Amino acid sequence: MKKSTFGLLIISALLFSIGGHAQKAKHSFMLGDSTFLLDGKPFQIISGELHYPRVPKEAWRQRMRMAKAMGLNTIGTYVFWNLHEPQKGNFDFSGNNDIAQFVRIAQEEGLWVILRPSPYVCAEWEFGGYPYWLQKEKNLTVRSKDPNYLAEYKKYIDAVGKQLAPFQVNHGGNILMVQIENEYGSYGSDKEYLDINRSMFIAAGFDGLLYTCDPASDLAKGYLPGIFPAVNGLDDPSAVKKITREHHGGKGPFFIAEWYPAWFDWWGEKHHTVPAEQYAPKLDAVLAAGISINMYMFHGGTTRGFMNGANRKDESPYEPQISSYDYDAPLDEAGNATHKFMEFRRVIEKHLAPGQVLPPVPAPKRAITLPAVRFSADKYLKLPTPVRSIKPLSFEALNQAYGYILYRTKLTNAKPGMLNIDSLADYAVVYVNGKQIGTLDRRTHRDSIFLPLPRGPVMLDILVENMGRINFGKYMLQNIKGITQAVYLDGKELNNWEMYSFPFDDLKKLNLTTKKQPGSPIIRQGTFNLPTPGDSYLDMRNWGKGVAWINGHNLGRYWSIGPQQTLYVPVEWLKKGENTITVFELLKPGQTTLSGLAKPILDQLVPEK
Asked: Are residues 288 and 40 in contact, defined by beta-carbon separation less than 8 angstroms?
């Protein structure tokens, strides 16, 4: 070996060692009297919420680069318990659930992270992030000191700690702060329960800066003395500082943990938009006052795979959220800059440190119109082996988290009459001898339908869809799905049920046939070819209600009532050449063509018939 070559190797090794050490360099992140202190220097958090499961893993980096281009220095994300422990004891941190990789990419892109394992997230997410199976545990009550709940909670937060505690700033990572619980003051006021949360987080390895967040009206109930209290929903600088000082020993720093420049949508209600000009001045005032902020949302993305949540209020029985989580956010559903993005960027630029320059805004991603697909043969679901029971069983009793269940019973010498389902959750299509009779809908209190029964033996089928568990408020403890009580025909209870599960968690498991199956909606499958993939949207306006998949990826639910009329198709899930599309259609079995669009339709309501 030449001497010069040996010298180069030594230098390279030293540089690698120094670089590797630098990546592991520990930071300090502390509370000053008026600002956060990063390595002892004032640091203003300018953060935006970005949820890893609502964005294809292949697109995480692109979304983070857009965050940098708007001027954000931090991103916030929840951690979703029901994704990571879908069934009790089975943890999953792979693929799109690889939260450690999400945080790692943020660090590579020069972004800090605010982590929100909670474990309750709200977030317009199924059951507020809780796994469905918690409801199956005997005497378990979420968000309480119930030992059964705390035992499961500890297993979850310990698993999250193994994944993410090493990424805290005090360990050389990029996680600045970790949130315990989530808007607990809107639910309860048990300080002992909150302190148990704190202890569990520390035991799981989260030994950095912890905080709570609550709306201003509930902050007194939701904060924990000794833990930094952040406030949600306020953007008046004097009000933010006043309420923080009241609950933090007369001091700062000051952090708006959720600032809402827009809002989410639910089925059957208008699309929500908020003009950028209405919020840009408020952002300007907050930053000028030295207050840190986290925008909820910076980028919403899409809620796929049956993971949307729902709301319920005393005056409104049920409000399931749509699949698009566009949120009218600064970054749209496909990850492109909006007018709001540009206005917020303009405000943030005013508050940059001297000499700091924002990266240029990337051009919009390429959008294409998918070729029209004409479906040929009708396909139906072959019924799996049923579970039999005298009374109908819930999703939970059948160990099914999401999707659909077909309830079947046989009637003998029954007369036409009113069918009533007691406590339907949530939507049902009713069939008599394989013929669709009508639908029932929890949203509109429609729990009864007249059955025109023919003479002789009758097969009654009720296909029930779980449209998302409630994610906020007192009704979270009432989240059982399916036919949860009983079925009556003219006041007489119907018994002896067969139940067929269709969770749709893996399309490869579907058993399809071209032979018509009583009680089975249509499954449409087809292919199309692409010379060059790009972002696109399925135009579902001529369809009824159901779910669609591209190349095996669940795109979310569609429903003709709107306001969402399209399904976003990420470029990352399309292939050059042949692509496969699958549609599960509940209401319009005669629909045989499907078109694409280059732009979304998120604001078109259609009156229900």
From this structure: no
Catalytic residue selected from 183, 333, 396, 585? 183
Report the mean per-residue pLDDT for the chain: 94
Burial of 272 (0-12, 13-18, 19+ CB in 10 A): middle
Measure the CA–CA gap between 352 and 345, rounded to whole angstroms: 11
The secondary element (H helix, E strand) that includes residue 583 is: strand 577-585
Q: Which of 152, 181, 258, 333 is catalytic?
A: 258
Contact 566, 603 (CB under 8 A): no
**Tokens encoding 73:** 């220095």
Round to whole Å and give the CA distance between 463 and 500.
9
Check if the beta carbon of residue 368 is closer than 8 Å to that of residue 598: yes
Tell me how far apart the alpha carbons of residues 240 and 190 are, in angstroms, rounded to a whole number.
24
Nearest C-alpha neighbor of 294 from the set 177, 407, 453: 177
Rounded Cα distance between 559 and 465, Å, is 13
In DSSP terms, 415 is beta-bridged to none
**Residue 258 designated active-site:** yes
Residue 175's SS3 state is strand
Cis amide prior to 119 (ω within 30 degrees): yes
Q: Where are the beta strands (DSSP E) in 26-162?
A: 29-31, 36-38, 41-43, 46-50, 74-78, 112-118
**Mind listing the pLDDT tens digit for each residue in 575-607?**
999 999 999 999 998 899 999 999 999 999 999
The one-letter amino acid code at 578 reads E
**Cα 285 to Cα 237: distance, rounded to the nearest angstrom:** 7
**Torsion angle in degrees (nearest 10) through CA of 314, 316, 322, 326:** -70
297 prior amide bond cis, ω within 30: yes
Tokens of 165: 């505690």
Q: Which tokens hold the place of 403?
A: 């999707």
Whether 85 sits among the annotated catalytic residues: the reply is: no
**Dihedral of the alpha carbons of 501, 507, 513, 517, in degrees to the nearest 10:** 30
**Which domains does the chain possess?**
40-349 (3.20.20.80), 373-377+519-597 (2.60.120.260), 383-509 (2.60.120.260)
Give the pLDDT confidence of 33-78 residue by residue, as tens digits. Answer: 999 999 999 999 999 999 999 999 999 999 999 999 999 999 999 9
CA distance 262 to 272: 7
d(CA 45, CA 483): 47
Six-digit token string for 554: 């669940």
Amino acid type, 192? E
**What does the pLDDT read at residue 352?**
94
**440, 487 Cβ separation under 8 angstroms:** no
Q: What is the pLDDT of residues 7-30, one digit of tens each?
A: 433 333 333 333 333 346 789 999
pLDDT digits (tens, 9 = 90+) for 395-453: 999 999 999 999 999 999 899 999 999 999 999 999 999 999 999 999 999 999 999 99
CA 359 to chain centre: 29
